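Dear colleagues,

As part of the handover before I leave the project, I'm documenting each prediction I ran so the next person doesn't have to rerun anything. This entry is a single chain, and its sequence is reproduced below.
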Amino acid sequence: MLNPLQISSQRDGEDRVTYAFACALERGGAGALVSLLRHLGAAVKECTGPIDVQLQPPALVSRPDAQFQVPNRLFVVFENKIVARTLRQVQIRGHLDLSKTQPSSVHRVILAIAPDQEPPEWWEGIKGSTNQVEFVYGSWRQVFNWAEASGSDDAYGPESRLIFGLLVDYLRQERVVKSASTTFAPEVVRRFEKGTAQWRADLSQQYQVQEAFLKDVASAFFDDLLRRGEKIIPKPEIKSGWYEPDSLLWGPVSSVLEFQWEGTPLPGWPQQSFWVWIYFDTAQPSGCRLILKVGLLLQGAHYVQWFGALREAAQKEFKERLEAKDWGAEYYREVWANTIPFDVSRQDKMLRQAVDDLKRWTMVV
């Protein structure tokens, strides 16, 4: 069995992260491995019992960082990257030979985890190249969220929860994730669901969590623009804000991330800000829920000539999700796209939704 005390003795950051990751899965057993794969979207059947772990197993073509095996049930080949945009197709294809050593009755998975929120462009093509292996991609942020939640899950024993905590610490230490936490406290979530949450006691303590999530949105958005070589908009000032209860404006409480430009990204375009909100909606019969909104704020003397045209163009892009508001102020209009309700258990999905909507807005304007 792997020794957690040896994590820090590994030769480099990637090896330390791999060792900590393998320790967590080994202590958590098959249940933890299945839980993680499902968290990353894999269609894996329930398994129980211990798992066999081998670091850097021998291979004919490409040696992976680790392999995890539930005998006669599940076989996972693992490729780890802790530097963005370094996952290579030739490595993943090389792992196919190792997976072929298992009988067809075993569920075979090639698991790649990297800092990038989205897989490389070639990933979908390789997924469709064979139906004998399931290809699963995840970001270290997703693993971080899973490990942090598992560390407080009573389904695991005290030792397993401790090792999950060590994995979280090493992901922070190696700077594989950019912010400390985007996990909402489970007891607060339960009060949300029951409609018994108190804004000052419950919501305000969650602000740091929301802020971390929103800043991850900003980072992923601009990383995507940089990766694609797009120069649609100049990099803005980014700021987050916290709005206390106001029944006329925000309902109970909201946090907002705003991208503000000092200049104008398009000739003649009025001063503007893209923004992302997590909005607490208490007007629902089933109780308070979180809504994620992504939109555009217009300010400036010429807003009138742009507001109608923008709303019309955005309607074609966002359809029934689009809303627009005219506050009656001389220089202030806004339009936004409502997303599906914010799911605290699938924050990575929500992050991708927010980034995708921001990219759509840049095309609309």
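The radius of gyration is 23 Å. The chain has eleven helices and eleven strands.

All the best with the project,
I.
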